[in-house]
Structure formats: C-alpha cells, structure tokens
Amino acid sequence: MLKIGVISNPDSQRNRRGLADLRLGVSGLVHREVDGPRSLTGILTELASQEVGLLVVNGGDGTVQRVLTELLEARPFERMPLVAVLPRGMANMTAGDVGLRGCGAAGLQKLVSIARAGEIDRHLRMRRILRLENIRGAGPQRCMFFGAAAIYDAIQFCCNKVYALGLKGNLGMGLTLGGLLLRGLVGGGKGPIRAHDIAVAIDHGAMLRAQRLLVLATTLERLILRSRPFWAEEGGGIRFTSIAHPPVRLIRSAPKVLYGWRRETLPREAYFSRSAERIVMQLNSPFTLDGELFEPQPERPLVMTAGDSIAFVRL
After folding, report:
1. What is the C-alpha to C-alpha distance for residues 29 and 26, in angstroms, rounded to an integer?
2. d(Cα 250, Cα 150) in Å, to the nearest integer?
3. pLDDT reported for residue 194
4. Could you give the CA distance from residue 229 to residue 284 in angstroms, rounded to a whole number?
5. pTM of the model
C-alpha cells in the first residue's frame, strides 16, 4: 500500500487559522509541521526513511517551491515520491494546475481514499520543474513559475496595498497586474510598472538586450485566472514570454496574450513567446519564483533549465 506523508506549513495563509480540521483528516498518515528549529531537509529525510511514496504539501506556492528545491537539490528520497498539493496559501497557482481542488480535510480524505484503492495512477500529471542558478545569497532553486519586471512590481504592490483591502489570491493579483499596467499606460509610464533592462539568450542563442515590460517562464499549463500567456510551445519544456516596453496596443492585445484569441495578429516586435530547454538572463532587478522574492547576481547571469520532472496528483 502506498504510504502517505503530509508536510504542513502553519504560516501559510489558510493554515494560520489552525490545523485542527486537517489533523483529523490526516489520522493514520505521517504528518509533520514545518517549524523554526526543524529544517525542511530533516523532515523530508525522515519521511524518506519511512518509505513515504505520496507526499502531500499543505501550504501555498512558496511552500511548494521550498519543498521542490529540497526534493531535487538535497535528494533525500532514493525514489522520488508522488506529490499532491493541498492549496492552503494565498495564490495557489501551482495547485490550480496540478493540485487538489479542495483545501480542507474532505479534499485530503478523498486523496487518501483514491490512493488506498490503488487508483492514484489515473490522476497523475507530469510536470517539468524549473531550476534557477546564480541567485544572490542562495543555492540553485526549483520552482514552477518565474516572473520578472512587471510581475515582480505587481507582487510588491499587491502585498503592500491590495491584500490589505481583502482582495486576495489569484483575483487580487490579476486585478493588481491589470490595474497597474493600465495606470502605466494612462499615466505616461509613471507609477510602479516601469521598463526593465533585461538581456535574454534562448537555447545557446545570442544574448539580446531590450527594455522589457514583463518576463515570465513556467512549466505549468495554466496560470492565474486560468490564463495561458505563452504560445509557440514546440521546442522545449520551458514556456517563456516577454513583452517589450513601451507595449504596443497592450489593452487590445490582452485577451490574445492571456487566452489565445487571434494570437497571430500580435505585433511580433513587442510580444515574444518561445519554448526552450535553457534560458540565460542578465537583469539587475529582483524577480519571483512561485511568489517568493529573490535577487540576481548582476555579475553572473541567471541560468534556467528544466531537466527534472515530478508526478503530481490532480484531483
């Protein structure tokens, strides 16, 4: 029988209200909570020693990012476990693509029932995992989503201003990014959204420097608000999109960029999307990995690959 382990982050948004409901739902499972004195590596090593084959990550995107980094960099498991994401964070973008639909004990109990019935293979979704090297003050990091320029600016603004108003999760982030982009256009480029000087090389190609409004890379199939802001998907496991600054017909082009309506009419000089196996970037501004904020090393370019895959349980 598949052994199930649960890692809970008590500091994730929904877990701050308490874990009493989930503690009932994980009865009979190996349940560990992340806390200060105990490292995540130590918890994963313990779960590996107990031969856990299905790892449930109870938290938000940041918790998933840290678990993926430990799983693939420290390699505590001899055989990589299946991963299920219980969405108890703020945005839960990863869970929206490859996680559990319910965030409470009922969703966890459904997962347990399916696993114990031997039907888990029917619900697996393989996803590649991004690997970022040359991050200031940190070793290589794993994630599902990289965002820079306007995406980083929007996260900063959202955390400082919007979430305090009660507009949280994907809706709050989507409205923030859209509102700030519109404000930048109407206000003549003034405000939090600005141009960023970023150089990019795709699959060992030439390094092309440009003023960019937005840069993203992901291995997910859907992002916030079920959007798919990437196209030209043949060629590699990393989906990469860049929008030039100043943007061309941004408001009119938004449905095409986000949801694919008549993308062939997008101005190619402004809207760029490729699939790649390796991306190198030179940038001076901070960026986000699954909602967690990092800084580059200006003297060393970021190197992004996606050579590893993990099987996620999608329910």
Report:
1. 5
2. 13
3. 79
4. 24
5. 0.91
